[in-house]
What we know:
By secondary structure, the protein is α+β, with helices and mostly antiparallel strands. It has helices at about 55-65, 95-105, and strands at about 10-15, 20-25, 35-40, 45-55, 80-85, 110-115. It starts with 8 loop residues before the first strand and ends with a strand.
Amino acid sequence: xxxxxxxxxxxxxxxxxxxxxxxxxxxxxxxxxxxxxxxxxxxxxxxxxxxxxxxxxxxxxxxxxxxxxxxxxxxxxxxxxxxxxxxxxxxxxxxxxxxxxxxxxxxxxxxxxxx
Length: 115
């Protein structure tokens, strides 16, 4: 079961879907990386939906199209990862993730910070 704490947000990602930008919150929890869409419903209640996740480093490679098994990236012309910001003080895999992103994308904005 995928688990995380909303108090432990480790960053944000921007996904370009056609002309629309989706802002996603990033968490680590018991996974390599968890992408959530957080929003308010019609009554103003906080809601969220799971956009995707990377269970571990190998799963991240598969999802990014970097594995030798020949998986295609989940990020394509319909769902392009354009920006990512990571709080390195809260995220255990910052160095590994940045390496994977640099290998997977020819153009991406990566922001690393510490709070």
